[in-house]
Amino acid sequence: MSAAPETRDTILGGRVVLLQPKDGYRAGVDPVFLAASVGARPGQSVLDLGCGAGAASLCLGRRVAGLRLTGLERQPVYAELARRNAIENGLAFEVVEGDLSDMPTHLRQRSFDHVIANPPYFRRDRSLRARDAAREGAMGEETPLSDWVAAAARRCAPRGTVTFINRVDRLPEMLAAFESCLGSLELFPLIPREGRESQLFLLRGRKEGRAAFRLHRGLVVHAGSTHEGDRVDYTPAASAILSDGAAMPFCGPVIES
């Protein structure tokens, strides 16, 4: 059987090469924003749950040198792409094949300074399944969000952080899941255009954190009130993140009370 068609793309302003399936799930800006939101320091460890082809981890590894990056991915085709992408980018990235609901033993025995995830956005009791199996595996929820958060918290070291990105309609259940096992929660909305409602959000919690909840002002992604043609219309702040590899405004350390 011949291999599925692939494309060779670049993200982060050409700083990261990403091999992806031509069809099926393809990384957008979400993993780039997720990577930019992590306040990791050289020498720290990061676990990327459901890492896909490795976009978030590789963007983070390009921004912060000397990280110990690990990804968990249940779909073999994406796990292999993530390994190849690590080689393409010259970054050390350990990719473990497995499901977070039955994590391989050697991974369950480890803890990480930061855990990140871009879990499936859509509950299939409220939406239609994707026709492509790989895309459905990435976008359609099978494991509840609460299980994703619990798995992330278990693998997070004391005082470490857990950061997720998801759609705003999932925020109530995400907040409840974070509050059950993490503290010092920070919510950062991603706003498509000035005056529009937020569609995506980043949520961060700290293991054993005690600081009060913080709602950040958020980031406006696109300039202007409407999209005109095919030109790129990112705001300067969004462009600095997506093209220049800048950190998100809230990726610094939480100030504990």
TrEMBL record:
Family annotation (CDD domains): AdoMet_MTases
A Pfam cross-reference name: MTS
PROSITE patterns: N6_MTASE
Keywords: Methyltransferase, S-adenosyl-L-methionine, Transferase
GO biological process, one term: methylation
GO MF annotation list: methyltransferase activity; nucleic acid binding
Domain Methyltransferase small residue range list: 34-123
Protein name as it appears in the record: Methyltransferase small domain-containing protein
Organism name: Pseudooceanicola batsensis (strain ATCC BAA-863 / DSM 15984 / KCTC 12145 / HTCC2597)
Phylogenetic classification of the source organism: Bacteria, Pseudomonadati, Pseudomonadota, Alphaproteobacteria, Rhodobacterales
